[in-house]
Amino acid sequence: MVLHELWNEGDDGQMFCLAGPGGDSARALLSPAARLVWTVEADSHVEAMTLYYRHMGWGAYTPAHLEDDGRPYDVPRP
């Protein structure tokens, strides 16, 4: 499982990213006012996004790219 974080920046929006070192570059873009509001563990990008969409009340998540097939993070991509 990989931990993901949802950060809220108020009027400037939000960011959903990996926790830990994998999300360092994303979090570096956040304003000092950003607040961590939710965390979730997922085995794949598709699972993380599905849970994020459910949390936000946005309905079903549909991957934008065919290669986003739900493979676990630890399975190499072709």
Helix-strand pattern, N to C? EEHEH
Which percent range describes the beta-strand content? 25-35%
- Average pLDDT, rounded to a whole number, is 90
The largest beta-sheet arranges its strands as 2-1-3
Query: In angstroms, what is the radius of gyration?
Result: 13 Å
* Cα shape: globular
Structural class: alpha+beta
**Uncertain ranges:** none
Summarize the structure.
With 78 residues, the chain is α+β, with helices and mostly antiparallel strands. Helices cover 21% and strands 26% of the residues.
Describe this structure in words.
By secondary structure, the protein is of the alpha+beta class. It has one domain (2-56). The protein has 2 helices and 3 strands; from the N terminus they run ββαβα. The protein has helices at residues 24-27, 45-56, and strands at residues 2-8, 14-18, 35-42. The protein has a 3-stranded antiparallel sheet. The longest helix is centred in the middle third of the chain and has 12 residues, at 45-56.
Secondary structure layout plus pairing:
Layout (H helix, E strand, L loop, with lengths): L1 E7 L5 E5 L5 H4 L7 E8 L2 H12 L22
Antiparallel strand pairs: 1-2, 1-3
Descriptors:
78 residues, alpha+beta, 26% strand, globular
